[in-house]
Design the sequence.
């Protein structure tokens, strides 16, 4: 059917048919998780008594915004947390993480990165490397210390080192997804082991998980294995491709409350913040999130299997469990990396005619190429592919609002990168 609409190599189409047959069981397993999470979502909506009046926003200061506060309540129940801030006022996942870090840490405290160096955009927030000289108000400038426990050679956490460093730390940071690192995403079992190692050594340490790209990939969230806070973006999994912006912080009530006073200002906290016309999209996006995440996971499995069959290295492999929506594709060269991104862009519903090129993106240490022909700018739950243009030239493929269209986008990307240039 795809060939009726797009020009695809016969050899690639033959591989596509094989892959669709091979992946049936993996797709069924993804659907089982989706159904569980969708029922959990429905239960949260009904338990919390969501009504049509909650879909209408507020203006001005936003005092007594019932829809905003109800959304916090629904989100907290869905992720198994005591409390949550699920707000359009977060500008990105990095912003939500920044609010959480500045809410939790004070002068003289230490932040321990328990899963190695965090994602590139957090370097400026923490004040690492050259960013320490920027003078923009990083944690380092406020006298917050930084320590990290590098991952072991196989990409797993060093539990002994975490236990050794935890007594001197106030906050333990775990990054669930791979970011732009050549390592696996972490499942709940692994996150639970990091939590145990840190809290056994320091019962007072606060464990915060950067949950971006991992929401709804399993039947529970890191709060179920002892994480005190989870943080993420609503233009990734939990926004369902419908939320136009936003992010969340969820977990222990006292910690969420502290963070709310950094989101707005000390003394007003969560009581402030109008929602304008965003609430209906945020509720609807959250409600659809389990299904949309499942479509993205199927896209990831499909892409891995197709590329493996063609002889390319990917992680995770198609038969492995997914703990985030990202597939790392080892393209082998800058040219192939850029071609893959350009092919994905050509298979996007918006701006398909645009040719992505590498550029110096704020917050990144290398030039970055991004393919994201999305309805929401930068939405990683929509089919996208991006990468820093540096060795070993790994492209990070993610998202997919629906599998049928995403499958076509992957085929166009693979053809552009690995067939047209040969």
Sequence:
């Amino acid at each position: 059917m795809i060939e009726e609409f797009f020009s695809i190599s016969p050899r690639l189409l033959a591989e596509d048919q094989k892959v669709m047959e091979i992946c049936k069981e993996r797709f069924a397993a993804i659907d089982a998780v989706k159904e569980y999470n969708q029922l959990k979502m429905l239960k949260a909506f009904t338990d919390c008594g969501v009504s049509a009046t909650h879909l209408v926003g507020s203006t001005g200061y936003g005092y007594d915004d019932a829809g905003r506060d109800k959304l916090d309540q629904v989100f907290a129940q869905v992720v198994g947390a005591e409390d949550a801030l699920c707000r359009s006022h977060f500008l990105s996942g990095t912003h939500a993480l920044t609010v959480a870090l500045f809410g939790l840490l004070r002068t003289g405290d230490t932040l321990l990165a328990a899963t190695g160096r965090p994602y590139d955009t957090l370097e400026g927030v923490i004040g690492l490397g050259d960013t320490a000289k920027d003078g923009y108000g990083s944690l380092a400038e406020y006298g917050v210390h930084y320590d990290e426990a590098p991952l072991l050679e196989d990409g797993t956490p060093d539990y002994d080192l975490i236990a050794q460093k935890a007594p001197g730390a106030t906050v333990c940071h775990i990054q669930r997804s791979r970011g732009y690192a050549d390592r696996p995403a972490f499942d709940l079992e692994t996150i639970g082991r990091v939590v145990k190692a840190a809290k056994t050594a320091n019962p007072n340490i606060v464990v915060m998980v950067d949950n971006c790209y991992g929401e709804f990939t399993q039947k529970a969230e890191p709060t179920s294995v002892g994480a005190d806070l989870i943080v993420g973006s609503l233009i990734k999994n939990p926004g369902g491709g419908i939320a136009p912006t936003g992010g969340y912080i969820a977990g222990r009530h006292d910690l969420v409350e502290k963070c709310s006073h950094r989101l707005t200002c000390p003394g007003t906290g969560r009581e402030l913040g109008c929602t304008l016309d965003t609430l209906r999209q945020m509720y609807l996006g959250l409600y659809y999130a389990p299904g949309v995440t499942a479509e993205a996971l199927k896209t990831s499995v499909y892409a891995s299997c197709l590329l493996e069959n063609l002889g390319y290295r990917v992680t995770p492999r198609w038969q492995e469990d997914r703990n985030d929506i990202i597939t790392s594709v080892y393209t082998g060269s800058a040219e192939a990396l850029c071609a893959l991104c350009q092919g994905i862009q050509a298979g996007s519903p918006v701006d398909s005619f645009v040719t992505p090129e590498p550029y110096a993106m704020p917050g990144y240490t290398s030039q970055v190429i991004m393919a994201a022909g999305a309805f929401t700018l930068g939405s990683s739950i929509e089919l996208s592919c991006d990468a820093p243009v540096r060795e070993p030239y790994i492209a990070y493929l993610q998202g997919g609002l629906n599998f049928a269209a995403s499958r076509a986008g992957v085929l166009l990307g693979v053809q552009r990168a690995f067939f047209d240039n040969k």
